[in-house]
Predict the structure of Prepilin leader peptidase/N-methyltransferase.
Amino acid sequence: MTQDAMSVAYLLIALLGLLIGSFLNVVVHRVPRHESIIHPASHCPHCGHLLRPWENIPVLSWLLLRGRCHACGNAIAWRYPALELLTGLLSLVVVGQLGLTWQLIPALVFTWVLLALAMIDLETQLLPDRITKPGLLIGLLLNGSALLWPGIGLVTPLDALLGVCIGYGSLWLLATVYYRATGRHGMGGGDLKLLGMIGAWLGWQAVFLTLFIAALSGGLVALSFLLRGKGRDYAMPFGPYLALGGWLLLLWPQAILSGYLHLLGS
Ligand SMILES: [Zn+2]
């Protein structure tokens, strides 16, 4: 493929990412409220004003409207354009890392699902079954379909199946031990299903490294909260750190593995 054609492909994927980001905003807002993600069409949450096409362009409309609803003037949260931009940016990183391969398709879908889950967990402290369960199933089907269509899967079907068992099982074990020791629930059931889902997509090997990255990054953030005097009872969502770990493992498994082994050896 020529350089020009590659640039066009990258641009299209960045634009697709912006559009998907706009859809993820709907998912993040509606799924925790048990609302349909299709009906009704996009509208202002304050006054119900239905968005016309020009008010529904990712990022651009928010800038044109100066962050306010055209009808009632209420503020539109900056989370909306931010998630659109982030989705576009991460999609670009994925294609930059994987190139135009068959695996790009599942990698983009996985990225978007992780983003939606991380945002929902940050806002509501929940990881909805409506996303984790189908996400887990799709990961298994994807890697299972590699039997018929080699090249589309991310890992072997067996690694994926073990990934679900070990992903769900290892956190279940941790949660049980923590509960026995402290009498408090440290993790929600959603975290277990999310790590099971990551195992379904990336295989059992990635589960351990995901958990390592999540514990490390989550631990650092928790420490910074403690140092700034926030209460011990502050319930920190773990899902965003699991999602971060899973996404990094999707794109840089070798670098992370050798970094981890290096840490162990030193
Ligand atoms: Zn409005």
Summary: The two ends are 43 Å apart (CA to CA). The chain has a mean pLDDT of 91. The pocket of zinc ion is lined by residues 44, 46-47, 49, 69, 71-72, 74 (CB under 6 Å). The chain has two domains: 1-100, 102-266.
